[in-house]
Request: fold
Amino acid sequence: MSSFDTSNIKSPWILHYDTGSCNGCDIEVLACLTPLYDVERFGILNVGNPRHADILVITGAANKRSARVLRNLYEQMPDPKMVVAVGICAVSGGVLHNCYNVLGGVDKVIPVDVYVPGCAARPEAIIDGIVLALQKIPEKRKLLKSREAKTA
Amino acid sequence: MSTRTVIPMGPQHPVFPEPLQLKLSLKDEKIVDVAPALGYVHRGIEKAAEKNDFTQNVFLVERICGICSFIHAVCYCMAIEDIMKIELPPRANYLRVIWGELHRLHSHMLWLGLLADSFGFESLFMKFWEIRERILDILEKTTGARVIISACAIGGVRRDISDEHLQEILTVIDKCEKELNGIIPVVMSDTTVKRRTVGVGVIEKEKAIHLGIVGPVLRASGIAQDARMTGYGAYKYLDFKPVVEESGDCYARAVVRAKETYQSIGLLRKAINQLPSGDILTKYKGNPGKAAAVSRVEQPRGELIYYVEGNGTKNLERVRVRTPTFSNVPALSKMLPGMELADAPVIVLSIDPCISCTER
Ligand code: SF4
Reply:
């Protein structure tokens, strides 16, 4: 493993985007970063730039307008990128499933690696989801490598 | 140079937790014009509320905004209770005030933290959010959830608060007050904070009235207007007086919210001490008839209005929500021009934008 490979498991940087949530899950994601839960002690940092991020944390159901932004953010992130859908809205649309502007879960727009249900998802559950995403990184890296080898 | 540059701020921006886009036209470093672009979180909740049963809507409207969810539910229930002529038991009214004020308390602390974050005062941000967790803990103890508590129901509230928990609320708010005494003076008198907020994003009294601004932004411009003054629920027994500041800048808005956190603590104490005993839920029968009702309550961000129209069936004819940020966004077009680009995040945050409310 190269030093890059270990560092993005030991210190993953997350990018948070709200595709149409009610704020409930957003403030729980933010609460993870503040003193009581303090994920920074594990090296998890919240960044504003998709090009610096390893994990995309999405809250809220995808809608027609935010889908484009979401796709852009996803494409700008470097591989291996992990996507964590936080809250029942991001998982399936939840209580908003029958709203006309809601497409459904985030997986209608981009591939999702980890689903964290809950309304609102608790900070403990969110941290758990991020840890699960980290465990899946080596697997994803292998997949990408084999795909590269095939296309080369 | 006199060419104009247009800088898009958002929809994904580190300062805003929510997707709000502002297209700022700049002349050098000065902002000359601003055009907000909305619609990134529009879901269509008003329409969905017509498809659902009117009792299910309580859960739906709570999810318009996760920060003041309980107050949304209260406002919706008040409108339905008005149509169906349901009398609330007095204890339910008080319990609604208690949970409502707890929500205001955590919302204001959240905002004060975000304000500190917007000018890079990281430790203050963390400190406010640390204190805020105590409020979330009591919300969780009394209702079982941290953010969306689903405690409000048509005809009253779904859960009671035991005496033991009431005592705990009192001790926790005492503790919070002590801790706030340590950091609110930083917001009020620290030079670095003042440098970033005093005289920034001023909105005068006349303009504030003209633009129809509501909530703490209006009160910071010297107008004593608060929906709690109408005495809905149990507020009429609590001797409520709004907090008013005169200068109308970001600093005044911070001071209003800082003082309102103390006010909420005071209201909580009073409500808990006066809490009557008795029932918490009135039973009702049937569906809302062919009538309409308007209800007004005060959210942490300002005045919230619900218009609900029934048609005799279990579905409603129309639900219209007018949220405080919807009235406050136009103020940005008056606050931002003439300011430096670096001040934009602070000014935008000073109205406490809640985009999920605005767009529903
Ligand atoms: S899952 Fe619940 S709390 Fe989270 S964004 Fe959706 S409605 Fe809000």
